[in-house]
Amino acid sequence: MIKITAKSIVKPGAREEFITTARELVEKSRAEAGNISYHLYEDMDDPDILTFIEEWKDQAAVDVHADSEHFQRIIPLLSGMTEEAIEISLYREVL
């Protein structure tokens, strides 16, 4: 099982557009084979910090997701609404 976090610091005034754009990514990603969960969270201290937390069956599912039409189309749109590059971390279950 693989977990992914993708943290974004959203530009001032772009939060609602980011969330609206992210909705399609979340919905389509949840429907992908190998997806266990896919959610967008806001930081409790700063609502302009938004983080996707995803869970995938295996690396093959992650690879298919990264190559999907919706991912390839939506991620550049979201990146244009952030202060800096989206910070992505991948985790593998240990215990």
From TrEMBL:
Show the PROSITE patterns listed in the entry: ABM
Q: Which species is this record about?
A: Akkermansia muciniphila
| Stated name of the protein | Antibiotic biosynthesis monooxygenase
InterPro entries assigned to the protein according to its UniProt record, in alphabetical order: ABM_dom, AI-2_Isomerase_LsrG, Dimeric_a/b-barrel
- Annotated ABM domain residues: 2-94
Give the keywords, sorted.
Answer: Monooxygenase, Oxidoreductase
Q: Which GO terms describe its molecular function?
A: monooxygenase activity
Instruction: Name the coiled-coil region(s).
Output: none
